[in-house]
Amino acid sequence: MQSLWQDDAAPAAGDDLALRVHTSRLLGRDKSLVLHGGGNTSVKIAETNVCGEAEEILYVKGSGWDLETIEAAGFSPVRMAHLLKLAKLPALSDPEMVNQLVTHQTRASAPVPSVEAILHAILPYRFVDHTHADAVVTITNTADGEARIREIYGQDVVVVPYVMPGFDLARLCAERFAAESGPRTIGMVLLNHGIFSFGDTAKESYERMIALVDRAEQYLKKHGAWNVALPTAEAAHTPEVARGLAKLRADISMAAGFPVVVSRRTDGKFLPYARHPEAATISQQGPATPDHVIRTKRLPMLGRDVDAYTEAYRAYFAAQEPAAKDRKTMLDPAPRAVLDPEFGFCAIGRTAQDAAIVADIYGHTIDIILGATALGGYRALPAKDIFDVEYWDLEQAKLKKGGKPAAFAGEVAFVTGAASGIGKACVESLMARGAAVVALDLNESVKTLSSKANFLGLVCDVTSEEQLHAAIVQTVETFGGIDMLVLNAGIFPGGCRIDALPTADWQRVMRINLDSNLTLMRECHPYLKLAPRGGRVVVIGSKNVPAPGPGAAAYSAAKAALNQLARVAALEWGADNIRINSLHPNAVFDTGIWTEEVLASRAKHYGLTVDEYKRNNVLKTEVTSRDVAELAAEMCGPLFAKTTGAQLPVDGGNDRVI
């Protein structure tokens, strides 16, 4: 554990909030300290209010902010005087505690303060840091964890047994701190939870955290429990494995009641851990810290029996709910983490980002479990304590902040010809609706269309069955399946009359515009059949299907054949709950083939200005790639749920088509 503090990179002395932001970000950069919104930090600052009165304000991390990216606006300013009064109350309910925190902020626009605000307030230090350091949690999650912590730290830290975060924890910490702290005290360890450090300056508090965690890491190294190695394992990446993953995703989606993303991980320790000879024991103890349960549930599923997992989850709820302070409604019983000797680890989420968070958390959980096992045995908290956090209203509120799920949340779209024009616009429209999107193109730029978790760009020649098979397998391993297929890739060769059309040119157009789409439809069919909301295919056709023109024989014939293929597929696949519809765009000029020079030349040929040429249709309107893409996305949505085999023009009205 190394300090990242650099004097020349730190804000100027005296700006305590800026320094608080700076060291918070340093902590957040180290994933072995905090993950995805975990941990919290604070600083106490003397200020003068609008009435000219001096008062001390606790700036504490606001709920929903991540330490790695937090800004000054992410800290909630709460009046210290009131927090210290609250700390003396005999009891305080969670809803009332939050109400008191929010109503005693000095900035109305501030986020809801951390539920540990009172705990930060009672610690007699200006700066307080709290992390869920892997090394510390590893040691505390053992049968003799408290004794080991006391051996490592002696009187340098106060040790507090596990209590659920909130008012009760603040009261217990106050009692323990008063009884155990001394001149040497620089931190506090919460068993099965995390570690605090404190100091008079941001640098002091931060570097104490680094030093304390380093001592835990050195202890693990000394006892052979640091970075525990596992035998290497080879993963299979085949269509057979991909179809198994898609079936697993379908079963989990059914259990959850909504589509989910399933992300397969075989790298690092994921696959070896899934094949660990004692996986059935060590993986079924519980999460490393209780707050992980809202992302991962209490236990991962072993194997693929979703029915057995959901039955066990219902039994867990039935056993724990009667002891809750108030009545609870059961959450969906579907797993969020799966360990399977063939798949490795599968992370499940309502979105690709949710699944990525599950994978991050469980990757650290594996290290913690292996380390604790090497120390003599991993021991998580009892199911009751985990249940209390899983069904804690304040934790559930964190997950509800996103509001209503996007239309295509949990669904996966596969788009060809996606680097530019209509294909690129389709990627954007589908992602805007919450879909995870895989984009294919020959152009390398397809890989960088987006950096979001719900995007995967693949360079692929659609005329190569081998490359298509690999792309499909990678899609399913990344997101779990294929729900929507947008067939857009194609070429429009230069004008050539039939009597001069070379066979090679004809065959090239057919391979790209027709044959590749047959391959894709055939190979994607098993996955489309498993789509939780039914499979959807949108074919990007052409005005040339109903109204061909001279000089475009190969293009027109290929698009017409593709359209006919789609109609036959609509007849054959309806029983599989797959719908196929076609769009016929025309005169879409914001694509790669239409340069300014070509546009000017064509407009001049017809005696029109460029603007008139773009709007040369019945409605006198310009048709853009986005117009086509938005309709393609809508065809995958509920408005077209009862439509298949349809052909719809997107051309502003073409007199020949009409």
- Average pLDDT value? 95
Summarize the main sheet: 7 strands, mixed
Q: How many domains would you count in the coordinates?
A: 4
The third-level CATH topology of the largest domain is Rossmann fold
N- to C-terminal separation?
71 Å
Structural class: alpha/beta
Query: Helix proportion of residues, in percent?
Result: 40-55%
- The gross shape turns out to be elongated
Q: Give me the count of strands.
A: 18
Assembly state: single chain
CATH class placement of the largest domain: Alpha Beta
Please give the count of helices. Answer: 23
CA-atom Rg in angstroms: 30 Å
Q: Any low-confidence stretches, pLDDT <50, length ≥5?
A: none
Beta-strand content: 5-15%
At CATH's second level, what is the architecture of the largest domain? 3-Layer(aba) Sandwich
Q: In order across it, which strands form the biggest sheet?
A: 3-2-1-4-7-6-5
CATH superfamily of the largest domain: NAD(P)-binding Rossmann-like Domain
Concise overview:
The chain has 658 residues and is of the alpha/beta class. The longest helix has 26 residues, at 503-528.
